[in-house]
Each structure stands twice: as C-alpha cells, then as structure tokens.
Amino acid sequence: MLKKNDHQTGIFSGSSKLSLTSAVPEELPRGRPQEKCGIFAVYGYRGPENAALVTYLGLLALQHRGQESAGIAFKEEGKIRAIKGMGMVDHVFSRRELSLIEADTVLGHVRYATAGPSIAVNAQPLLALSHDRTGMALAHNGNLTNTRKLHHRLLETGHIFHTTSDTEILLTYLFRFRRLGLVEAARKTMGIVQGAYSAVVLDHDRLVAFRDPNGFRPLVIGRLDGAYILASETAAFDLVGAEVVREVKPGEIISIGPEGLSSAGVQSGGEPSYCIFEYVYFARPDSVIDGSSVHLVRKKVGSLLAGRLSAKLDLVIPSPDSGVSAASGLAEALNLPLEWAIYRNPYLGRTFIKPGQETREMAVRLKFNPVTGLIRGKRVALVDDSLVRGTTARVLTALLRDSGAAEVHLGIASPPYKNPCYYGIDIPVPDELAALDENMDHLTASIGADSITFAEPEDLYEAVGKDRTELCTACFTGLYPTPGR
Ligand code: 5GP
Ligand code: MG
User: For the residues 428-451, what does the mean pLDDT come to?
Assistant: First the structure.
C-alpha cells in the first residue's frame, strides 16, 4: 500500500527531475481507492431486447475494465433501483432477473479497485436517494485528486460516508445541487472536484454524462435502435450493434432526456490530456479511441520498436495476450515469423490483481506454458506492451530459456514505467516498479534477458497521432498534467 507520506520522498517528490508539477494525490483516510472502471448506459431503448439486457451485454464487453464488482441502476415506477454485486458481470446478473426489468433507461458499471478495499459498498452505480426513493445513480470511471480536502469538507458539513470510494464525493455534490437540475448540478460539481472523471448520472428523467477537462478516461456516445448509448469503449457498441456518434469531449456535459441529446457546453479548466496507457494496455484492441484503432496504434508502436532492436533474431513471440498487437507490428517490420509460442490459460483472472510478489509469480507461471518445439535453439524477441513490476517478463524469459531458447531479447512497446498514476490506473508502490533503476544492465540482469529495448515516448505520440501535450504520459515521463493540490 502507498503510505501517506510516500510523496515526500523519492519519485513522489515534487522536486523530482522529471516532474513539471507535483501531482500529489489527496487520499481518503481509509484506503486508497484507485479505480479504472467501465461504464455503459442506455437511454430510451425500445428495441427488440430490453434495456437491462443490452446494458448487461455492454458490461460484458467492458469486463476487462473491471472484474471486481458490477452493477446496474434504473428507474422503476419513479423510483431508482439498483442490482449490484461482487465479481464478474455474468456472476452478478441473471437473465431472468434482467428480463423482468421494464425500464428503458439503464446505467451500468464494472469496477476495478486495485488498492482500495474490495468491498460491496463501493460497487457502482452509487445511489443517493430521498425518503421516497427518488434521487440519482452515478457511475464513475477515474480518480479524483483533491479527495482528502473534499472528504474533510463534506464531513464538516455533516455528511456521513457510506463508502470508501471517491465516487461518493462526486455523488454527494451532485445530490446537493440536484434542485438546479442534473446538468447544472454536474456543472457546479465540476467546479469543485479535480482529477479524472468520466461519469454518467441518472435521475428520474434524464441521463447526464460529464468528463473532466483533461479527458483522462474515455467516454463515447452511440446510437442503437433510436436510443442513445454511452460507453467507455466502442467495443461495447460493437457487441450490441450500436453505431458510434462521437466522443464526449474533455470538459463536456452531455444531457439526454425526452427531448433528445444535447451538449450543455464544454467546461474549461485544462488542456485535454488523454491517458496514454489506455492505448498501451488498458483498452481493448478492437476499440477505437478518438478515431484511432487501439490495435493499430499498438501495432505501429511495435513497428517503431523494431527499428530500435539491434539483436539478430529468428522469431518473434508475443507475451499473451497483451503483447500480441505490438509483436505483430514488430514481426512484420523485421520480416520475421510471429509464433504463438507461449500458451496462456484463458480461464484464470489477471495476475495483477493478486497481492504479494510470491503469489504473483506463481500466478504468472500458472497462466503460461511454452510450446517447447518452437523455441529450442532460437534467438527470440519476446514482446509485451509494458513492463511494470517486471514479473511477467521475468517469468516468461525464464520459461523461454528453460525451453532451450538460445537468446531472449525483450521488446517493450512503451517506455519504462516510472511514476505513479493518480488518475485511475492501478500502479504498484514506487519501489516495486522494475524500471525505476535507470541502469539498463541491472534491469536486463534482473529480468534475465539478453537485452531489453523499450519504445520511446515519441513512438507512442507518432502511433497515436497526437502531440505530447494532448496526452497524459505521467506514468512514463513524470509530467503530470494537473497540479496536486
Ligand atoms: P509486470 O508483470 O511487469 O508487473 O506488468 C506488466 C504486465 O502486466 C504486462 O504483461 C501488461 O500487459 C500487464 N499490465 C500492465 N498494467 C496492468 C494493469 O494495470 N492491470 C493488469 N491486470 N495488468 C497490467
Ligand atoms: Mg500482459
């Protein structure tokens, strides 16, 4: 766990040579909620399925964004209700239960809280209800950075917190301003909270979506059978057969009601800085973010990485499945065979989730098995999207060596991961980050590879087709787009 004062030492220090501004997060007193989540909402759906089932499908497509809890909220006879639970989407909902929901407007969420407590009360959508069960439901993807200050402020005004999630802060302000209408409530709230939020709120007659002025986390508008849809990623639209309309712009408030969809304007407060890690790892490869195919971005980074590798190679092997897109670009650029030489057991969860280094290595070993016949005597490039703790690379390199690889050269399709993220991506505590040691020989030896080659930040900018200033690259560069306090 990140200790409260960690920011006063080491790379958390504002004086770190890489930092432009010190983006020190303010934490809740209990726990450190860091969430990267998925949102799916549908307004006014009158197609062949029911809105709850459509939402269920959308959440299934966004399962990679959060496996800890799932939930939906909807309006029934003027009252807001929710079905939520811990675990995967398929586990939380039953078809029977969903098919009984008549609401044409449903808001859904999958949650991934890696460092904060994994408890049911934090499952979203979060509800704020009046005595007659009217009220609102909120789904949030991101992480606020002025949490501690707002938490204290709300406590002083008599608020009793029911969760340890920063989403409750957002909801509390929205609810306090509800008499102004949801759009104005969102506008007022945006003037108070800082950090990363792509959020959707539902009340008795509308859905309002709002995105922080930096636009850290994605949020897209779509259409399906005359209804409007909002989702974190376009892959969710593909599954339900919806078309993409456009992104919610950074700082924008979108209102969907009986009169249709309208933009309530764009709040200023910062330059857009889309999260680069969505492109590197987090989003599905079949999603399109701001016009760019995630797979093609990763493939392009792989081809640029190819130009940086100097070793003689026989074979390119992706780290499954996260290295596949980059490995295909790298193999194509070097005109080398791409072989699926490491099998990944698809029936296990992601290893990142499990705490403690020993269990993590065991989990990685549980997950992967080599196809020895392909590897023996070969000089291989092992390609992954990122190197965080180094666990995956270490285990896979050892696996390839045990299978008789003559040489193992590691290609990482992103720069060394050096800085914590305060905007909603799970980052280990700083001293667990493998690339903190800038000595490449040490790093290569600690991974056990013959060489390690990282992509440069410029490779990412080129592949994404955005300027550095339009992206949040803090995890790689230490340049934080927002001040901490
Ligand atoms: P490492 O094993 O070096 O700690 O982490 C790098 C590996 O974990 C890569 O294979 C990458 O695909 C994956 N990874 C990177 N970031 C995340 C994350 O936030 N969550 C999960 N589950 N995996 C991640
Ligand atoms: Mg991986």
Answer: 86
The reply to whether ligand 1 has any atom less than 6 angstroms from the CB of 281 is yes
**For residues 330 and 309, what is the distance between their CA atoms, to the nearest angstrom?**
10
Residue ranges of the chain assigned to CATH 3.40.50.2020: 294-477
Confidence class for position 439, pLDDT limits 50, 70, 90: confident
Rounded CA Rg of the chain:
22
Does domain 294-477 correspond to CATH entry 3.40.50.2020? yes
Superfamily of domain 12-272 in the CATH hierarchy? Aminohydrolase, N-terminal nucleophile (Ntn) domain (3.60.20.10)
Asked whether 82 and 125 are in contact (CB, 8 A), the reply is: yes
pLDDT digits (tens, 9 = 90+) for 357-411: 666 667 767 889 999 999 999 999 999 999 998 989 999 999 999 999 999 999 9
Is residue 71 a contact partner of residue 125, using CB atoms and an 8 Å limit?
yes
What's the pLDDT score for residue 161? Answer: 94
The pick from 301, 344, 352 for probing ligand 1's pocket by mutation, whose C-beta has the most ligand atoms within 8 angstroms, reads 352
Give ion ligand 2 contacts, CB < 5 A: 322
Q: What are phi and psi of 453, to 5 degrees?
A: -125, 125
β-strand partners of 72: 83, 108
Q: Six-digit token pair at 41?
A: 């909402």
- In the chain, CATH 3.60.20.10 sits at 12-272
pLDDT at 7: 28
pLDDT at 358: 65
Tell me the pLDDT of the chain averaged across its residues. 88
CA separation for the pair 67, 116 (Å, rounded) = 14
Residue 19: what pLDDT? 28
37 belongs to the catalytic site: yes
**Span from the CA of 391 to the centroid of ligand 2 (angstroms):** 10
Q: Is 442 in the pocket of ligand 1 (CB under 6 A)?
A: no
Q: Which whole number is the average pLDDT over 335-346?
A: 95
Beta pairing partners, 317: 382
